[in-house]
Write a structure and sequence with these properties.
The chain is of the alpha+beta class and 47 residues long. Helix content is 21%, strand content 36%. A hairpin with a 5-residue loop joins β2 and β3.
Length: 47
């Protein structure tokens, strides 16, 4: 799983940002979209 950091846009929307190994932004999504996708995914069973 990639580590995401949270930011706020100028309008106040909460954002998730993913950075590459050089520290540059690779992907930026709104919290609402990213959180919705996280909830829809099923996790693997624990052993």
């Amino acid at each position: 799983m990639t580590k995401r950091t949270t930011h706020r846009s100028v309008s106040g929307t909460k954002l998730y940002a993913v950075r590459d190994k050089n520290g540059r932004f690779k992907d930026i999504q709104t919290y609402k979209r990213a959180h919705g996708q996280d909830i829809k995914r099923k996790s693997k069973k624990e052993k």
